[in-house]
Amino acid sequence: MNNPTTENDSLEVSKSQRKREANELLDLAKNLISMPESRLRGLPLDEALREEVNFARAIKAHGARKRQLMTVGKMLRRRDNEALLDAVNNVDQKNRQVNARFHHVEAWRDHLVEGNNQDLTKLLEQGPDINVQTLRQLIRNAKKETQLGKPPVAARKLFKLLREADGRNPLPPLLPG
């Protein structure tokens, strides 16, 4: 009996697959090296890998930095990176959520300054903890600043007010149009 697939065949990984995996780990190494120190501190890195990443961050010469990047990539290939990948993905997901909330608050500010009364009514209905008088005054001042070409001081204060309100109770979705 000639068996076309043996146990060794099913366990072998193609050269192309090994290269793809190595390139993914090299991308992870680039991400780790370019990551801010505050984010890097929270990741589950062993001491040797942390030292190599910090060393790579300190290198300014392009060629030397590239060699060190390869060293970090090689270290990643030799260990199980599942926990590290999960941690990096979780941090990235949280950053995307924070950015989405930031853009949502910006959109609210822009709509209010443009003078959309429907949006203002909706905001006041769903955000009862917002000081109506302060909100209306900031909107008026932001409109004046825009018309006169002045720095957007009131628009910044309006953004801050909306961001604080969003932190207490998420702002509702904007009406289309």
Structural class: mainly alpha
CATH-scheme architecture of the largest domain:
Orthogonal Bundle
* Percent helix: over 70%
How far is it from the N-terminal to the C-terminal residue, by CA? 71 Å
- Count of discrete structural domains: 2
In total, how many beta strands?
A: 0
Low-confidence stretches: none
Mean pLDDT: 84
Beta-strand share of residues: under 5%
CATH superfamily of the largest domain: PSPTO4464-like domains
Radius of gyration computed on alpha carbons = 26 Å
Alpha plus pi helix count: 9
What is the N-to-C order of secondary-structure elements (H for helix, E for strand)? HHHHHHHHH
Shape: elongated
CATH class of the largest domain: Mainly Alpha
The largest β sheet comes out as:
none
Which key features would you list for this structure?
single chain; 177 residues; mainly alpha; Diphtheria Toxin Repressor, domain 2; 2 domains; 76% helix; 0% strand; elongated
Q: Mind explaining what this structure looks like?
A:
The chain has 177 residues and is mainly α. It has 2 domains: 14-79, PSPTO4464-like domains (Diphtheria Toxin Repressor, domain 2, Orthogonal Bundle); 95-168, PSPTO4464-like domains (Diphtheria Toxin Repressor, domain 2). The chain has 9 helices and no strands. It has helices at 7-11, 15-34, 37-41, 47-58, 62-77, 82-114, 117-126, 132-148, 153-168. It is elongated, with a radius of gyration of 26 Å. The relative contact order is 0.08.
